[in-house]
Amino acid sequence: MEEINPFTRKPETRDLKHYVAEPTPATRDQLSQGFGCLVPESFVRLVNRALDEKNYELRRANGYYSDLGFGFDGRLTRSLIPDAKVTEQSDPAMPPEFFPLGNMLDSIVMYGYVVLAPEVPYEDYPVATFEGADDCIIVRGRDTEDAFLEMAFFLLHQGIRDAVNEQLDELSPMPRCPKGVDRFDWAQQHGPARGKIRETIVPDASRVIPRSGIKTLCKRTLKELGRPMRWKEFVQRAYESLRSRKVERCACNVVTPPSGYRYLPTCNNVGVLAPEASFDAGALPEFTLKDRQIWQRCLTAAEEALSRGFPGTSLYYLQSGWNLGGDSEKTFVDTMCRTYRELNRELIAAKTMRNFEYFAKYRS
């Protein structure tokens, strides 16, 4: 095997900590090859910032955004050094449209793009997190910029809460609890009035104290995204995010179907985006994650729809049954791949079969 500069030994004998990429910016084609989908330009800029700041030492670059709660996995290393021996995080229940980018603080929770229709030339994709135990994705942003902003905003939430509480105590101090009165009852008695005052408070940016280094990292990230903003504005945006934050979000909230396409939400929060003509006119049943082991019923309905020439309807049933038992069944996965090919989505079909075959050896 040919050596890659600046190695002194062959790449396959080295650990990740020794991998150093060529000191030239990563290209979109390189990263798209490594991450499995056409990555947006904004993601390329974020990667190149990490590489440049860490002198192209890949282990250090992988953790450049760790203070934001995000870390690259082996896909970044393999994008730049194709024969590198690295680990890529995956999960057998991962929805086919979910293309991992990295993980959340070295945990099993993965960040990834939700690529619903590779044939549609979107400039960016929704970013979501996925954990196998949850059986569904949680959308974190409508695109790369929105997701990284949310990561940065989240870092300030505790500092904002502390600042708001400090301002609240100045405007409406909590009366001292009399002796003999239950403290919980006393707090409940005075809580509603203070809560109304809290709603009117705008946090003082000068009182919001982030952890060491967070302020600098947030500024650099925003600059790389082309969204520089003053600290006061940044705190205000983070405060608005905190007030409107949702625990779970579905892709239907961030997907705008192009002309001639239709979007249908599914119980795993991914949904189906396909041409209008690929759906039949009949009403479709709704499924929930409580409907365990219904994959057989979904598979039968999907095969029937596919035989009638409606791959969009077929994919709706398959997507609904994917996290309800179908992801581990060969017949189910075969039908899903045929459906993707009917929709001209060879990229997702190949990824689906590759992931299934990889985990099949661990099931037997």
List the helices and strands and how they pair.
Blueprint: H1 28-35, H2 41-53, H3 58-62, E1 71-72, H4 74-80, E2 98-103, E3 110-114, E4 127-130, E5 137-141, H5 144-171, H6 183-200, H7 214-224, H8 231-244, E6 261-264, E7 272-275, H9 295-307, H10 311-322, H11 330-342, H12 346-363
Antiparallel strand pairs: 1-2, 2-3, 3-4, 4-5, 6-7
Helix pairs in contact: 1-4, 5-7, 5-8, 9-10, 9-11, 10-11, 11-12
Tally of strands: 7
Approximately what portion of the residues adopt beta-strand conformation? 5-15%
Quote the average pLDDT. Answer: 81
Q: Which class best fits the helix and strand makeup?
A: alpha+beta
Overall body shape: globular
Strand order of the largest sheet: 1-2-3-4-5
Order of helices and strands: HHHEHEEEEHHHHEEHHHH
In terms of quaternary structure, what is this? single chain
Gap between N and C termini, in Å? 34 Å
Number of self-contained structural domains: 3
The helix count comes to: 12
Please give the radius of gyration in angstroms: 24 Å
Low-confidence stretches: 1-15
Main β-sheet description:
5 strands, antiparallel
Helix content: 40-55%
